[in-house]
């Protein structure tokens, strides 16, 4: 791993600074890449990182003035890169993203699950915190020295950034030095792929049309000025009206030309057009006209139903269960058209989908069950019953990416089917994951977080282990109330364990479900008894944005004695029941089941239990 070597000298001049920049260029670019937000996308983030470093040196006169008192060229250029990267992370001016590359997409090598998890948690931090974290973890600076470097780089909130970076260190994977050695975080080792060729051609046609219209309008305006009339306005109006009234056209449908194995964005945009009727103009026209007319369009969980302003991407067109089906994607939504019952179209949100949440779409529903169209990177399709965690995964037949029908969960929750999918090794080695259908179009991704006894806090992991399957066997029935509410993902987090008064052990599990629109539901239960310990709606509790939780419940022992049980997550160091303060994160008190409870955190804050 490259680090910025410190070169101390009595006097530093422009030549030394230029040499330091060239010598440490890969490390400087990676430093800028880590500070810049992942929301830019890998291509723009790579270019922006190189641009920050290449702009780090001002003109010679200004540089000479800034170097007065400097004793290290490497330290000076690093501070400049940090300052400019943080400023660029907050800026919205696209010109600062130069240099630009035309006709190609640049991206580092796709990473494994740990790399993606690290990138996701860093994206939630401020640029200042990412800069502080990079100085400590990558440049190996002490905390005090890193804070001084941040202040020298013009970052006023250096102390806050250091504190946030420390929290990032605690919540992120403890061994992140491994993923950081990978090329996924090296913007100097990039891969090339062509841009969307069909979109480029469409944009080229659009530019030509716009230029023609502009020239025509300019000509009409000049004629009007010369003749002293206003006829040009009347002549231009039909042209504009014609453009505004333009409907979605089959010829403008986008079809991806980039192979999913060669893209850094593994989501619906990487799906190729599939099905036996992708060239059936009549069918595609019916689907587009239905979306444009809006008369037979329904939404999943309040998704916008208006037709897209630009042509959508074609994902599928073919016959399924005796009816024609078309699947479209406009970058933010999935639309499924079926010509059954006169032709209907369903729209659901899919913004920020990833390798798991874009792995399958419900393509057909009837009395036999639901058929799913799986992503092209899905190499294995299995079927599990979540109510039977010890049963092996069964094979689910598929043809052309479309599965056999999957029965819905039993009304009494005696069975609950889930798809166990495995990604191709071209995406991530040995990456298996679970999804279950809760209505709508996209099944929900199921994950699991183990109890504190198994080590430091980690990100949600795939729910395919024995412990994860046992956990979901206990809680999956709670998802019945979330049918057709647009659930994107659900996670089981065992946030505390407790030895109960009768000598047995209990596990406090928070089930967190997130919707595509951003809202969430959280509920806590104590197992194995399954006692209700509280719930919350439209909250961040039990998500990665709020991992501090406390819950209570009344528990009756086999002898008939009643206890107040309470448990908090790993940051809880003291519980207060009424006027009594008890050290630790779990308690079991005889009686007192109606006593108020609060929890004190190691940060000094106080939280209260979830409502029941």
Can you put this structure into words, describing what you see?
This protein is α+β, with helices and mostly antiparallel strands. It is 29% helix and 26% strand. The protein has 14 helices and 28 strands. Strands 10, 11, 14, 15, 16, 17, 18, 19, 20 and 21 form a 10-stranded mixed sheet that branches. Strand 24 and strand 25 form a beta hairpin. Helix 7 (127-137) crosses helix 8 and helix 11 (197-227) packs antiparallel against helix 12. The longest helix is centred in the middle third of the chain and has 31 residues, at 197-227. The chain is flat. The model is unreliable at 5-10, 172-179 and 229-245 (pLDDT under 50).
Rg (C-alpha, Å)? 29 Å
- Main pleated-sheet profile: 10 strands, mixed
Low-pLDDT parts are: 5-10, 172-179, 229-245
Helix content: 25-40%
Number of helices: 14
First-to-last CA distance: 51 Å
Strand proportion, as a percent range, falls in 25-35%
The overall strand count is 28
Which word captures the global form?
flat
Mean pLDDT: 84
Category by helix and strand content? alpha+beta
């Amino acid at each position: 791993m490259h680090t910025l070597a410190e070169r101390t000298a009595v006097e530093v001049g422009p030549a030394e600074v230029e040499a330091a920049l060239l010598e440490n260029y890969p490390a400087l670019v990676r430093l800028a890449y880590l500070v810049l937000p992942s929301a830019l996308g890998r291509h723009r983030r790579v270019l922006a990182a190189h641009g920050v470093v290449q702009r780090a040196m001002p003109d010679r006169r200004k540089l000479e003035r800034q170097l007065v008192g400097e004793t290290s060229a490497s330290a000076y250029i690093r501070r400049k890169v940090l300052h400019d990267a943080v400023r660029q992370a907050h800026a919205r001016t696209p010109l600062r993203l130069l240099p630009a590359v035309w006709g190609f997409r640049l991206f580092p090598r796709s990473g494994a699950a740990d790399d993606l998890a690290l990138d996701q948690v860093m994206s939630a931090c401020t640029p200042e915190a990412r800069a502080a974290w990079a100085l400590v973890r990558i440049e190996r600076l002490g905390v005090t020295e890193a804070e001084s470097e941040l202040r020298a780089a013009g970052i006023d909130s250096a102390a806050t950034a250091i504190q946030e970076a420390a929290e990032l260190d605690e919540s992120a994977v403890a061994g992140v030095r491994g993923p950081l050695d990978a090329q996924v975080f090296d913007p100097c080792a990039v891969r090339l792929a062509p841009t969307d060729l069909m979109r480029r051609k469409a944009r080229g046609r659009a530019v030509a049309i716009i230029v023609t219209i502009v020239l025509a309008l300019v000509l009409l305006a000049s004629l009007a000025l010369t003749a002293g009339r206003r006829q040009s306005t009347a002549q231009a109006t039909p042209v504009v009206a014609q453009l505004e009234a333009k409907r979605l056209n089959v010829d403008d449908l986008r079809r991806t030309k980039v192979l999913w194995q060669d893209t850094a964005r593994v989501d619906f945009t990487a799906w190729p057009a599939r099905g036996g009727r992708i060239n059936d103009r009549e069918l595609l026209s019916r689907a587009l006209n239905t979306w444009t007319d809006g008369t037979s369009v329904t939404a999943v969980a309040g998704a916008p139903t208006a037709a897209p302003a630009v042509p959508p991407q074609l994902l599928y067109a073919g016959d399924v269960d005796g009816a024609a089906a078309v699947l479209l994607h406009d970058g933010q939504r999935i639309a499924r058209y079926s010509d059954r019952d006169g032709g209907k179209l369903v729209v659901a949100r899919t913004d920020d989908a990833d390798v798991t949440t874009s792995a399958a779409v419900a393509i057909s529903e009837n009395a036999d069950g639901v058929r799913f169209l799986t992503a092209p990177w899905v190499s294995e399709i299995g079927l599990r019953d979540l109510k039977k965690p010890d049963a092996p995964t069964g094979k689910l037949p598929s043809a052309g990416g479309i599965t056999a029908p999957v029965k819905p969960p039993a009304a009494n929750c005696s069975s609950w089917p889930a798809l166990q999918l495995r990604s191709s090794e071209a995406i991530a080695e040995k990456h298996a994951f679970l999804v279950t259908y809760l209505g709508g179009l996209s099944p929900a991704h199921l994950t699991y977080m183990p109890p504190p006894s198994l080590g430091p806090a980690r990100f949600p992991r795939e729910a395919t282990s024995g412990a994860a399957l046992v956990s979901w066997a206990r809680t999956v029935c709670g998802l019945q109330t979330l049918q057709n509410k647009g659930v994107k993902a659900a996670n089981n987090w065992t946030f505390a364990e407790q030895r109960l008064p009768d000598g047995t052990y209990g596990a406090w599990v928070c089930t967190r479900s997130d919707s595509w629109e951003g809202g969430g539901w959280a509920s806590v239960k104590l197992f194995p008894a399954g006692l209700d310990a509280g719930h919350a709606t439209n909250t961040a509790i039990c998500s990665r944005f709020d991992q501090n939780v406390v819950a209570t419940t009344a528990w009756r022992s086999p002898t008939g004695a009643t206890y107040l049980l309470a448990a908090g997550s790993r940051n809880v160091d003291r519980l207060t029941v009424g006027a009594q303060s008890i050290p630790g994160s779990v308690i079991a008190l005889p009686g007192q089941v109606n006593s108020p409870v609060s929890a004190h955190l190691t940060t000094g804050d106080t939280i209260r239990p979830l409502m029941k």
